[in-house]
5'-3' exonuclease PLD3 (Scomber scombrus), 484 residues
Amino acid sequence: MKTDIPYNQLMDLEWRRQESNRKAQAYSRCVIALATVATVLLAATALYNILTQKGPSSHPTPSSSLHVGQGESCSDPCKIILLESIPEGLEFNSSTANPSIYQAWLNLMSEARSSIDIASFYWTLTNKDTGTHHPTAYQGETVLKELAKLSGQLSVRIAVNTPPESQPQGDLRLLNDSGADIRTVNMRQLTTGVLHTKFWVVDKKHIYIGSANMDWRSLTQVKELGVVVYNCSCLAADLGKIFEAYWFLGESQSIPSPWPTSFSTLYNKDTPLQLALNDTPSSVYLSSSPPSFCAAGRTPDLQSILSVMDDAQSFIYIAVMNYLPTMEFSHPKRYWEDIDTQLRRVAYERQVKVRLLISCWGSTQPVMLSFLKSLASVYDFKTKLDIQVRLFVVPASPEQKEIPFARVNHNKYMVTDKVAYIGTSNWSGDYFVHTAGSALVVNQTASQSQEPTVQSQLRAVFERDWSSDYSTPVTQHTNLKNIC
């Protein structure tokens, strides 16, 4: 037989091929054996961790406690409390009531031993800005007095939106003179937006986040909602990273890309922090806006909202001051459909019940009602399309009407059959694209506890407000002048 390769070379090639196959088979057996050993070791380690698990401590557990698709666990004894500011004269025929934001701020200051970090939009805790000398301003004045006292005793840092010249700055000057360290963040230069966030981090283990500004009206003349979380260093450390981003921007006045790894987080919508809130198993994370402020791992606020809606199975309840599918402050005008489209989609595709409770007051834009009427029209009993919209009006006496920027439902939250979302942003495009905001997202569906969940408490607040005498259904004939 004639070949192009000598016979002895063919035999040599065949021997090498067979030898290669033998080595490959041996290698495969070795890999399988090693994988088996590794699996046994991992199982043994997991069993050891379970058997030797310790009680609550002040520090998160090591990274070896990561759960696939769940995130890192935390053994802190975290206590969460839903808070409200109910305006003077607003009364409900309901047993649903929550502790006040004012009292929570006083408690946080009394608990403080080393540090208080506050991210804020503006400061008007006295009513010098209004010239009204309203007696209910005493709550804001008390907060300012106590914070000024603490500024000389421990570390007080304030990150605040760069105030325009027309805005009162007496509170900030007082705090600065008392020892507080203040940095202004020039959001107009950075993103064309504002620093709209409202949160506290105390001693790196207690936090407050919610709709209330550092404004006396937010305690007695404006309806607000937020939460305080005590003894939760793992969550406080993560919110602290968002504060440190503002603090960094207040000095650098430029946005890093990418952000240094010290600002990164492990906790997001895909891998939330696992902890016990009020002894209830919870999955928790913090979202932030705008996206340019989000370091690696941080879920942008808009993505958080869309994700919460996407996970809802039976209902979505939303209470926000403003709802506009537009870039509210952009010129020329620009439509922005992200949230609006998602609501229509889940209502149509999955027959999720959608309720929106939107504020109606002197500053309500007429165009908002047009968009709300459009949403409200997506209702058909026969096809089970169920989107309903109501306007909430905070009543005001003639004297209260004289107080500027007051008597409004300033809430910014969403609750579904699974999740409680408590944020700091109004719902129009600018707040998610250009403006700095943040939110706490809590899922307690794994709860077997008798304790009420954050979700159930938030739902009770929404249903109380929705069915109250202060809410009015939006129909095609609704006229703002007749309601607001």
User: Anything to note?
Assistant: Confidence is low (pLDDT under 50) at residues 1-69.
